[in-house]
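Explain this fold:

***
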Amino acid sequence: MRWRCPTFTRSQRSTRRINGARDLTVDTPLQVDAFVTPGTMLRSARLQTELSEREVEDLLNLMPGYVGILERDDYQALRSPAFARGYVRAYGQLMKLEETELLRAFDEQREHWEKEKKRVETRPLQLQRTGTGVVIGLVILLAMVFALWFWQGQDEVIPASVQPNEVQAPTAEAPQVNYED
């Protein structure tokens, strides 16, 4: 349940056409229903005490700009959004606001924000796509490995026509010379 300001009702005189024929003046009640967030509660309390944002930051030892962020209910803009509840509580205590209503409004707003965040963050699962640079790099690496393997293979295999001839014993005998003659 969200904390709401009291509802104010007032009458407004309006003129409208019925069936395009004539004007009719009707008194219709207007309902003004103002939704109050923790930030607006804190801001209105600060303005009633006539303190500036900087003075509140100094009193609470907050970083510059935090009071404005809290008053805008922009808790994700804080350096540490996890501490937002504590900041709101401390600010509320300084302004002498009722802590339970302030924190209830904060928790409801946080729940609403988390629902919106979940709705935005859910995306369909996509398969990982490998970048073109990685693919090109792998192809070049594979080509280099293949070229190195081919080049080293050339040194090990020697064709038969290039092999050195083995020294063979002479098959023909040398002619014998007869020295007796």
